[in-house]
Amino acid sequence: MSRRGAFIVVEGLDRSGKTTQTNLLCEHLSKIGDRPVKLIKFPDRTTPIGQMIDNYLRSKSELDDHAIHLLFSANRWEMRSSLLQLLNEGITVICDRYAFSGVAFTFAKSLVASAPESTRKLTYEWCRTPDAGLPAPDLILFLDISAEVAKLRGGYGDERYEKAELQQRVREVYKRIQDDMQTSGVHWISINASHEMEVVKQEICSYVKDLSNGVNEPIKSLWLT
């Protein structure tokens, strides 16, 4: 049986360096592995659903917090078949944000003191449910950075979620998700993203080496147990 492609997700707070590091990781794996590498990003802002999300993130439209959470999830489900096809064809997939971002950001909004009553009623379990059944990653790399450090980086504040209090809550929720993933056997690695870009890159590369030539195990599903 041929080895399938590895599914690697990069998560983190806004301005933690995800875009830079996912691009560097794709370049690295293309050089050391024996298979093609594909980069995907969520939200995918090119689809009709993605365009609605883009307008919301740029504060060009308003949506109920339940509705926008479900749109983010639907945007990932749009890609499910294509993602599975890529992996089964032996292509390594690097994903910039995934279902964990959806849970982290929506549930974090419910923890902010100024949140409206309907948002405060959002539960962690409710936030997870729409993504149950999506393909589970083989490795999650979480770029950990404090909200204070992220705030000092260029472009901070350009989008709706880039607020210090919310980002701190998001970081707390990510820690809870990390515990969930480790309990369910999904490999989650936290990396100090406040270091220099090259230092972060080298640490990431050290963790993906064993996945560079594919995976033997079948693709698991997320959050079904």
Automatic annotation (TrEMBL):
Signal peptide: none annotated. Gene3D superfamilies: P-loop containing nucleotide triphosphate hydrolases. Its EC number is 2.7.4.9. One of its GO terms (cellular component) is nucleus. CDD domains: TMPK. Keywords: ATP-binding, Kinase, Nucleotide biosynthesis, Nucleotide-binding, Transferase. One of its GO terms (biological process) is dTTP biosynthetic process. The keyword Nucleotide-binding applies. One of its GO terms (molecular function) is nucleoside diphosphate kinase activity. Residues 10-204 form the Thymidylate kinase-like domain. It is an enzyme of class 2 (transferase). Pathway: Pyrimidine metabolism; dTTP biosynthesis. It comes from the Eukaryota. PANTHER family: THYMIDYLATE KINASE. NCBIfam families: DTMP_kinase. Belongs to the thymidylate kinase family. This is Thymidylate kinase.
